[in-house]
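On clarity, I found the account of how folds are encoded harder to follow than it need be. Since the whole study asks how a given chain folds, the encoding of that fold should be made plain. For illustration, here is how one protein appears when written out as sequence plus structure tokens:
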Amino acid sequence: MRRILGIITLFCCMSTYAAEIRITPDSSLTDAIRKAREMRRLGQATEVTIHLGAGTYHLYEPLRLRPEDSGLTIEGEDAVISGGLEIANWKRQGKFLVADVPDFNGRPIDFRQLWVNGKKAVRARDVSDFEQMFRIRTYDKKNQILWVPKKAVEKILKAPYAEMVLHEMWCTSNLRIKSIMTQGDSAAVRFHNPEAKLQFEHPWPSPMTPDTGHPSPFYLTNAKDLLDEPGEWYHDIREHKLYYMPRQGETVHEAIVPVMETLVEFIGTAEHPVRHITMKGVQFSHTTWMRPSEKGHVPLQAGMYLTEAYKLRPQIDRPNNHKLDNQGWLGRARSAVEIRYSEDINFNDCRFEHLGGSGLDYVLACRRGTTTNCIFTDIAMNGYVCGSFSPEGLETHRPYQPTDFREVCTGQTVEQSEFYDVTNEDWGCVAIAAGYVSDMNIEHNTIHDVSYTGISVGWGWNRDLVCMKDNKVHANLIYNYAQHMYDCAGIYTLGNQPGTLISENVVRDIAKPTYVHDPNHWFYLYTDEGSSNITIRDNWTPEEKFLKNANGPGNIWENNGPQVNEQIKDNAGKK
């Protein structure tokens, strides 16, 4: 039976009564949180710290922290909060290791990630080197067919749940394959809905066809016949079996699959926010995100997926903006930690690792809150996310200026943190994604080895005045970015952001994948559509390769490029 360990220790100082609760992994973290809540309610303590002993705390549903938990601190000592399930009893079957996939919490499970001996394994795919991806031949919007080389699909003609990951300028789409019809040396691929309708109706981003000179690449995944490289795996969902091809000399000591999408939720209301909670020294691990397996995934940008999108004829006239040629409505991927209606929710010395969605997400109506000295690594999508990226009911090009400003995420800080090997599945995501935010501070972070842009601030493709203002992007170090996608930058902005300052950052060493849609369309700094009233000053880059695309008024560019003072260059990044 699980239990709370260690009777509470009380410390009294004037009007503050502090208490400590110590637990170990065989205890209930949920029960400890409830105990702390009751101690405050009964006047036994005003501040409570829960100390997590070393080990893994397995969850069967998200921890939910509410206004009644305000004032809590959760500290870890090599403690991992995990949404994973261990797969054991592997048996040799030819070149594979095979294990039965057990039910979880009374139900069969599906998943999109596997970690073996602490390292992410590769979901079986047709190429091990992305430079060898096949290219599309024809893109038939009317009939919703993608024509590809026949050779590309020969191994998956009978695969029941195969997927295509299609490269589209600044995004990748996950498309579940419905049927394949071969004709000569080509094959017509059709997809399930809703992604088929979305894929062939949405105009941006679009796949590149052969007449552009850079036809879009793609890879295929999730078929047993693609399981042909050491380190790859395949889940036979019908037979509830997991196949893994071990690396040379590898013994499986631990194999973890994720069974949860979110580990921790902070849930308040506008009138009663969750306040003053700190999580320190805790690792958040082993999540998935299942929408691509259930409905596909067709994003617009930064992993924000389309729920409806189509081209406009005639275009919409927009005062103060250029004409609009498309409509789109968005959804948001799940994150390991999600925060709504809060004040001062802080993360210190935490680690976000082995995650199948995004990492940390200040979703809605969050005020202040710091993320300091944290590590974000091995994350499928965005690392750190903050603010609205257009509410579900608001067409994404319309300006967002809520009547109740409490909806806007305001005053968040992310600093002295490191991001690497994030965006490793959804290549169109970014390390730090800030949407409609105000008074946000992104300072002294180190970002490297990411698939697309390093830091993105702003949203909307619109120069109208909205809720964004006074954001600060200062002294960050960004390198080895754009590992898979172009139309990108180390630092990227959208929208009207009065008082926003981008200063003393260092951006260098962009990657050079050969399969991008336009090999010249990359930048160190990029103020995109509607960017207005932003100051870009004293940023060091190896050359003045910047883009100012359809900007509004009021932007100030001062002293950016290789001439920037060496002291500024040396000061950037995590210290």
Summary: The longest helix spans residues 29-41.
